[in-house]
Design a protein that fits this description.
alpha/beta, Rossmann fold, 7-stranded mixed β-sheet, 3-stranded antiparallel β-sheet, 10 helices, 10 strands, globular, binds S-adenosylmethionine
Length: 288
């Protein structure tokens, strides 16, 4: 699923005297974008080896940080691939997403796999966490849902309320510095696309003729919002040397070379300054 840069468009016209709240309009745009891809989300994208490699890194990190049996909250669960995996590994999961179609896909997956006793799916956005009852041992989020959250400080406060003291946050977040992406688009003369992650504040990113409103972060920028309630356990680059998932065709043509690059990620992705780069970063924090 390749993304494009969009120019900010005019807000939708509403037949009311009250002007629409731009933040609500952006949230609804993002919801529509993900609703529109929910049916095909596990197709070619789900079979993408580069996505699976990053996914496995998050799975194994969660398992290192939290004992099976722990109660987990998934923020932006998509079609429930992670929730189902964690249920199979012995965790209990509340899987949440802002896209109703994605929540339906998660419900279908857990029903079909006989995991409904371990996984509950709920239509709750990351900006609506006040709706949830506290009592989680860990909260994870995979492949960038937190990049769509309009107020990260509010998310941090809600995560602190929802987690027991000592509980863990394990998030994979879209980073700002992705050398592969800059090179890929700059070589094709798409300079605006190459520079999209440099934008400050919210940025419109096209997907399937919809808009995902996205915030990009360096790991330290991201952590700043959580620093009041959480200590930083560590962070690492994901897909820094390895190409990002949308270059999977390149990976398939140069598999041995890319696997070697993947080993560089595993070996050096935790080291400064490399850990500040990559397609995503994986950050682990602990509730004080
Ligand atoms: C790239 S997908 C990742 C899905 C899933 N975590 C995975 O690993 O496959 C991003 C997900 O974030 C969800 N999302 C976007 N904005 C959100 C928000 N404000 N609150 C909760 N989920 C959101 C989307 O609906 C989508 O399912």
């Amino acid at each position: 699923m390749e993304i494009d840069v969009l120019r900010p468009g005019p807000l939708e016209a509403h037949d009311t005297a009250v002007p629409p709240d731009p933040e609500q309009v952006r949230l609804l745009d993002t919801q529509r974008a993900f609703d529109s891809v929910a049916a095909d989300y596990d197709g070619p994208r789900g079979n993408n080896e580069l996505i699976q490699r990053m996914r496995t890194t998050l799975w194994d990190t969660v398992q290192r940080e939290l004992e099976p049996g722990a109660r987990l909250l998934d923020l932006g669960c998509g079609t429930g691939l992670d929730a189902a995996e964690f249920a199979q590994r012995g965790y209990r999961v509340l899987a949440t997403d802002w896209s109703p179609r994605m929540v339906e896909r998660t419900q279908e997956r857990v029903q079909a796999a006989g995991l409904a006793a371990q996984v509950e799916a709920a239509h709750v956005g990351i900006h609506q966490l006040e709706q949830l009852v506290a009592g989680f041992d860990g909260i994870y989020s995979n492949f960038g849902p937190l990049n769509c959250a309009p107020d990260l400080a509010a998310v941090a406060a809600e995560c602190a309320r929802l987690l027991r003291p000592g509980g863990k946050l394990i998030f994979s977040v879209i980073g700002r510095i992705c050398p592969w992406e800059v090179g890929h688009y700059a070589l094709r003369g798409r300079f605006r696309r190459a520079a999209v992650r440099a934008a400050r504040g919210v940025t419109p990113v096209g997907m399937n003729r919809h808009t995902i409103w996205t915030y990009y972060y360096l790991p330290r920028e991201f952590y700043r919002a959580f620093a009041g309630q959480f200590s930083l356990s560590g962070y690492r680059a994901l897909s820094l040397f390895m190409p990002p998932p949308y270059l999977v065709d390149y990976y398939r043509r140069h598999r041995a070379w890319c696997e070697w690059l993947g080993r560089l990620d595993d070996r050096f992705g935790k080291l400064a300054p490399l850990r500040n780069m990559g397609d995503h970063f994986l950050i682990v924090m602990q509730r004080r």
